[in-house]
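Input record, target 12 of the design panel.
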C-alpha cells in the first residue's frame, strides 16, 4: 500500500533545494546498501527540508539499517564528508573485528580476513573480556575503550576467552580506510 500524495503537504522548492548530487563509481564487489528510491516496489524515501533522507518499508515504518550515524555526530563533519569523503580528524583504531553482544558479552562474529585481529590469531567465537586493561560489559564499552586509546596505529591490549582459558593478546590497530577499495582515477 502506497501513501496518497494528497495526504501530505509538499513544497517542491524546499525539496529541490535539499537535494545533493553525488557522483560515485562503485565497484561491483563493494559493500553497499540497497538502492535508495521509490522505483523499488514497497520502498519510499522521505527527504526532510534540511536534506536528511530516510527510507521506509511498505508499511511506512523505518527499516533496519547498517552504518547509521546519529545526526548530532554527522553535523560537525558534514562538510568534510561531502568534500573529502571522510572526517578530517585522525582515524579511530580499527581491529578488523566484527563483534556482537550476547548477554552482555562481546563475541567475535567475524573477522576481516586481512585485518589486524586475524593476523594475531583471533577467531570466530572468541569472547573479548577486557580491552585496554578494563573489563568490557558490552559492545559499546568495548569500542569506547578501544577508541579511547587514540588514533589508528596504536597497540590495543585485549583479554580473550577461548575454550575455557583466558589469554592476553595485543593487536596493532589500523585505519579501516586502508583496507577498503578506493575509486580508480581515470
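The sequence produced for target 12 reads:
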Amino acid at each position: 500500500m502506497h501513501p496518497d500524495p494528497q495526504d501530505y503537504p509538499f513544497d517542491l522548492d524546499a525539496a529541490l533545494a535539499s537535494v545533493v548530487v553525488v557522483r560515485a563509481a562503485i565497484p561491483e564487489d563493494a559493500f553497499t546498501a540497497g538502492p535508495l528510491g521509490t522505483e523499488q516496489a514497497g520502498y519510499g524515501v522521505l527527504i526532510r527540508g534540511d536534506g536528511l533522507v530516510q527510507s521506509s518499508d511498505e508499511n511506512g515504518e523505518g527499516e533496519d539499517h547498517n552504518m547509521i550515524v546519529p545526526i548530532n555526530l554527522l553535523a560537525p563533519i558534514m562538510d568534510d564528508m561531502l568534500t573529502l569523503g571522510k572526517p578530517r580528524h585522525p582515524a579511530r583504531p580499527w581491529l578488523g573485528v566484527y563483534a556482537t553482544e550476547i548477554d552482555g558479552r562481546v563475541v567475535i562474529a567475524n573477522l576481516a580476513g586481512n585485518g589486524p585481529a586475524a593476523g594475531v590469531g583471533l577467531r570466530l567465537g572468541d569472547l573479548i573480556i577486557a580491552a585496554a586493561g578494563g573489563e568490557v560489559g558490552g559492545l559499546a564499552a568495548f569500542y569506547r575503550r578501544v577508541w579511547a586509546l587514540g588514533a589508528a596505529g596504536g597497540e590495543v591490549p585485549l583479554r580473550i576467552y577461548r575454550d575455557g582459558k583466558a589469554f592476553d593478546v595485543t593487536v596493532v590497530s589500523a585505519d579501516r580506510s586502508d583496507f577498503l577499495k578506493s575509486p580508480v582515477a581515470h
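The chain has a mean pLDDT of 75.
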